Amino acid sequence: MSTSATPAPHPTPESVAEFRENLDAVRARIDAAAQRAGRDASEIRLLPVSKTVPSERLRLAIEAGMTGLGENKVQEVSRKAQELSDLDLHWAVIGPLQTNKARDVARYAHEFQALDRIKVAEALERRLEAEDRTLDVYVQVNTSAEEAKSGLNPDELPEFLATLPQFSRLRVRGLMTLAVHSEDVEQVRGCFQLLRQLRDDARESTPELIGPGELSMGMSGDFELAIAEGTNVVRVGQAIFGARPVLPKQK
């Protein structure tokens, strides 16, 4: 099984047929992984991650059958949601959020998968109130203990969950994590197992705080392992859209 450190090469689709072929291939992998794990594949949602993909190519992907897209950067969601406003799309923000960009999330996104700070929850609540909208949220947990990664420390999760009911516009769906970037399958598996255990603990102690208790974990290189460990959402980018260009860092 490949991990995030050793992805298979992904050709870049340039037509509806090629996008459909990639989607079918990913869905077949999801179905096979679910079958191996004794799970129902309908329990697993595929979230295509379209970061860096221009809107004109996204129109091809949408024609191929995509109804929801995930983006790491709020400015990309804002721009693409406007450029594709003639289409009925479900937008997910899956990267960290600065409070000064909460307005665009409240205006354009349907879910936010990287909630890990009270200040962000407060900013989203204010903006959602102004927009008269609600937002599905997943609490991000740093299961790999890497300093460079966003997310709560696992031991901070219970207290953080206990603060969220005050934000009536935020609807907690569950937990999200990014596994360690490693060729060691057991290290990757450990990240997924930890998130599942944290979810199970929350369900046992304070089930009213975890919502449906969904797990969002697994990307192009490791989603089959995540399915074996119980994920409900897999965030797949390159296996659908092809390898991403290496972009210069923004200053």
TrEMBL record:
Domain Alanine racemase N-terminal: 22-245
Keywords recorded for this protein, A-Z: Pyridoxal phosphate
One Pfam family linked to the record: Ala_racemase_N
Modified residues annotated as N6-(pyridoxal phosphate)lysine in this record: 51
Cross-referenced Gene3D superfamilies: Alanine racemase
Keyword ATP-binding: no
Keyword 4Fe-4S listed: no
Alphabetical list of InterPro entries matching this protein: Ala_racemase_N, PLP-binding_barrel, PyrdxlP_homeostasis
Protein family: Belongs to the pyridoxal phosphate-binding protein YggS/PROSC family.
Function: Pyridoxal 5'-phosphate (PLP)-binding protein, which is involved in PLP homeostasis.
PANTHER family for this protein: PROLINE SYNTHETASE CO-TRANSCRIBED BACTERIAL HOMOLOG PROTEIN, PYRIDOXAL PHOSPHATE HOMEOSTASIS PROTEIN
Protein name: Pyridoxal phosphate homeostasis protein
